[in-house]
Amino acid sequence: MPAPTIYKIASADLWRDAERVGRFDGAPVDVADGYIHFSTGPQARETAAKHFVGQTDLVLVAVDAEALGPALKWEPSRGGALFPHLYAPLPLSAVLWVEELPLGPDGAHAFPPELSAGEGA
């Protein structure tokens, strides 16, 4: 069963823009690919390490997957794993919470404790 909570890593600037307009249309890579990339809880760390290494001023956005309806598709990506892809703008009404995603002392992103406990698995 797909995860009820999915996650988006985004720059804080892009997220502030989304809050101003009331929806998130995606980062440049999302716009280029034609859908908004999300990760499950277990996939989020790998996504950060692969696509956001060393980047600061990021946020982690938790989203209620069920609130996205049929525009959310689970499609194979890295290693054949199913990743959530949203083929529509993200309505802010589906966002559960937003937290900063800072770099830890080891240079990896420091995820919130609720993700460390396996939320979204």
UniProtKB/TrEMBL annotation:
Pfam families for this protein: DUF952
PANTHER family hit by this protein: BLR1139 PROTEIN, DUF952 DOMAIN-CONTAINING PROTEIN
SUPFAM superfamilies with a match to the protein in the record: ADP-ribosylation (SSF56399)
Highest taxon of the lineage: Bacteria
InterPro entries according to UniProt: DUF952
Name of the protein in question: Dihydroorotate dehydrogenase
